[in-house]
Amino acid sequence: MRIVTGAEADESAAREANAAFYAAFRQGDLEAMDALWARDEPVLCAHPGGGTIHGRIAVIASWHSLFTHGPPPIDHSDDRVTIIRGMAFVSCVEHIADRRLGATNVFVWEQGRWRLVLHSAGLLSQDDESIDPGSTSGLLH
Amino acid sequence: MRIVTGAEADESAAREANAAFYAAFRQGDLEAMDALWARDEPVLCAHPGGGTIHGRIAVIASWHSLFTHGPPPIDHSDDRVTIIRGMAFVSCVEHIADRRLGATNVFVWEQGRWRLVLHSAGLLSQDDESIDPGSTSGLLH
Q1: pLDDT tens digits for A58-88?
Q2: Cβ separation of B50 and A118 shorter than 8 Å?
């Protein structure tokens, strides 16, 4: 029998919450998306290319607007969970058609589940993932 | 006499830590940059266009590499501090020449100062900051 520690259980649940986020995203399921965001904490959301949106009402409205236009066929990979002071920082790569984006999703444990306080995503350079400000890959820093 | 509460003091100190981060960035000051990152917590860093970098050694190495190429003339504005479960989430707009980037910097209170656990930045669309996946502004979601 394998012992699952609390930390492992947290990480596994955070991975599931991240997958649930992308499922709601892909399906344009506003109710599921709403349920995934924290209610007792302030929340922030930075869609790619857009400024940071503050506050639950504005964040959920942004998802509503996005879903109204038709949610993108988004998928995710490379999920990595880092627990910092009891919060789950999940980094992953988002895939929309042939574009890749880097994302960070931060969850707090609230009412028995992981709930989002931050979603932040930005387009990844096409040619590589290295940091080389001298390259022509479009990295600014 | 104005009473400054703990929360206000935290926010003010987080704003100062964020300014110190951009000062170290602009000046290419690796020692100051190193001192700004947490030592007792895991850290993550997503430079624009690049994948997420995990771990203190790799993150500091990325700043070393970036500074070796010459730090960009970066400035910041629109700083907004949100305290979530004792951590400071600072969103701001970065300015490098005529480009604007959206950034989220997350700090933990460690050894009497705010220290970074996450820096994440991505290019903002040139034409507006709205979220409109139907627009031609390059937003993917």
Answers
A1: 999 999 999 999 999 999 999 999 999 999 9
A2: no
Q: What's the Cα-to-Cα distance from B90 to each of A17, A123, B76, B82, rounded to whole Å?
A: 24, 21, 11, 6
Distance between A64 CA and the closest CA of chain B, angstroms:
11
Which one of B65, B89, B106 has the shortest CB-CB distance to A131? B65
- In tens, the pLDDT along B80-106 reads 999 999 999 999 999 999 999 999 999
Per-residue tokens: B73: 């003339």
| Residues in B touching A55 (Cβ below 8 Å) | none
Distances (CA, A) of B122 to A93, B14, B21, B49: 14, 21, 17, 7
pTM for the model stands at: 0.89
Q: Which of residues 1-20 of B touch A (CB under 8 A)?
A: none
